[in-house]
Write a structure and sequence with these properties.
Blueprint (H helix, E strand, L loop, with lengths): L8 H23 L7 E6 L9 H6 L3 E6 L3 E6 L3 E8 L2 E8 L3 E6 L4 E4 L11 H8 L5 H10 L14
Antiparallel strand pairs: 1-2, 1-6, 3-4, 4-5, 6-7
Length: 163
């Protein structure tokens, strides 16, 4: 019999995986796509913070899938979202996608991917959204910097031993 999850493993996993998306995009923004890597990203076009043209919103009222492979430019990776310019009907279009809007992410070249659980309704200003937007895992570079700035602490295990 399963107990109540007071820790919130589903939300922790969700935030961690969105951090994976952010870090993968950061690598591509810095180095470009290497080898056969490419990304398939599907996102909720109705999510707050998604910026797409009215034409794209009309064509994709619920969900849109993009492929970052050959023809994209201007990839900017932020803490809470990313921006990229893609070609639609031979016209460049800039889009902005919050990580919370992403439903599926994959890199077919290495058979890697995942689908996010359908999150509870998130409306602007809710505690859940604010927590999720500010609580993505820190990028690896920030973790290294933080680790080098803070002195280590020694913890005695005697306090945890049974006597």
């Amino acid at each position: 019999m399963a107990g109540k999850d007071f820790i919130g493993y589903a939300e922790l996993t969700d935030r961690a995986l969105r951090g994976v998306v952010r870090e993968a995009l950061q690598i591509v923004a810095k180095k470009g796509l290497i080898g056969a890597h490419h990304f398939y990203i599907a996102f909720d076009t109705r999510h707050p913070g998604v910026h797409i043209s009215d034409t794209l919103r009309k064509d994709y009222p619920l969900e849109m899938a993009i492929v970052l492979q050959h023809q994209f430019s201007g990839l900017k990776v932020g803490e809470h979202d990313f921006e990229v310019t893609l070609s639609f009907h031979k016209m460049p279009e800039s889009i902005k996608v919050p990580y919370l809007a992403i439903r599926r992410f994959s890199d077919p070249s290495v058979e890697f991917g995942f689908q996010f659980q359908s999150p509870p309704e998130r409306t602007p200003g809710t505690a859940l959204q604010a927590k999720a937007e500010t609580a993505l895992p820190a990028p690896l570079e920030e973790k290294k910097k933080e680790a080098s700035e803070e002195p280590g602490q020694v913890v005695s295990l005697d306090a945890f031993r049974k006597k």
